Amino acid sequence: MDHYLSTRYDLDNPDLVSVIDDLPLWSAPFGMKLLEVVELRHNMRVLDVGSGTGFPLLELSQRLGSTCRVSGIDPWEAALDRVRMKIRLWGAENVELVQGVAEAMPFEDGTFDLVVSNNGINNMEDDRKALREISRVSRPGAQLVVTANLPDTMVEFYDIYRAVLREDGKEAELERLKEHIWKRRKPLTHTVGIIEGAGYDVIETHENRFALRYTDGRAMLENYTIRLAFLDSWKEVLDETDRERIFRRLEHELNHLARRTGEVRLTIPWVCLDCRKAQ
Predict the structure, then answer these.
(1) 3-state SS class at 148
(2) Span 1-149+186-209+270-279 CATH architecture
(3) pLDDT at residue number 2
(4) How far apart are CA 167 and CA 160, in angstroms?
(5) Sign of CA dihedral 208, 126, 108, 93
């Protein structure tokens, strides 16, 4: 009997419940577009670079089916453990995981027909080297689909942060803030340039945006997504002795924004790039 007919999910299994509704809110808008753009074919080798806790890796593996083999690579061991649990509970037998970095991947040349990276390029230490590695492990004609958030991400917050630093005479910190934004959110022209430099043609570019909304500055700064992914890097812009005072001012200004406009709204512009490796 087919596997899907002979087994059923136990809704009283606490492990199963722990992996339901597990799509990361932050990466969902990017990843849903990525899943629209990828070509679905039989008998493909597929790679998700920066697979994190398993999205879109597992969703892609399920959509492609058993004739395809999907690999995920990420340096985050705890996240890979989480994916292993999902693989076991979902019965995703066409997935393999590798702990490693994009800049030095343990795959042979020309292995993959499709490579995806959902907001992963932003987090690579050396994006040019990573794209060269992705090109190396891709077959001629392979599809590459990447998403990334753009430099105006959370511009409403950064405008306030810059204003507070200027009022406080923090010139060095202003420069560090600029460097922080550049490191994590490259301009689209830069991303296109390194992709083309790695031997790909950019076939289509899809740009869009969404918003994160909060009642006030305290709600925003206490939000788990902000604390998990952004807050530490914002604090590192400042000397430790200044952090509490500056962040109190930031919260005050964000609260003022909320009273004036009705909310704290953070705009997230992003892009999805559909690319092909030269034949």
Answers:
(1) strand
(2) 3-Layer(aba) Sandwich (3.40)
(3) 67
(4) 11
(5) negative
Q: Which two tokens stand for residue 55?
A: 């999205």
Global pTM reads 0.94
Averaged pLDDT, 257-264: 98
Provide the pairing of β-strand 138-149 with 264-277.
Answer: antiparallel
Helix axes 171-184, 155-167, angle to 10 degrees: 160
CA angle, corner 229, sides to 71 and 181, nearest 5?
Answer: 100
**Residue 206 pLDDT class (50, 70, 90 cuts):** very high
φ, ψ (nearest 5 deg) of residue 215: -70, -35
Q: What is the bridge-based pairing of β-strands 112-118 and 95-99?
A: unpaired
Per-residue pLDDT of 137-186, as tens digits, reads: 999 999 999 999 999 999 999 999 999 999 999 999 999 999 999 998 99
Taking only the tens place, the pLDDT of each residue in 119-142 is: 999 889 999 999 999 999 999 999
Domains of the chain, by residue range, sit at 1-149+186-209+270-279, 151-184+216-262
165 half-sphere exposure, CB direction, 13 A CA radius: 21
Give the phi and the psi of residue 266 in degrees, each rounded to 5. Answer: -110, 115
Mean residue pLDDT of the chain comes to 95
Give SS3 for 193: helix
The first and second tokens of residue 145, run together, are 């689909």
- From first CA to last CA, the distance across the chain in angstroms is 42
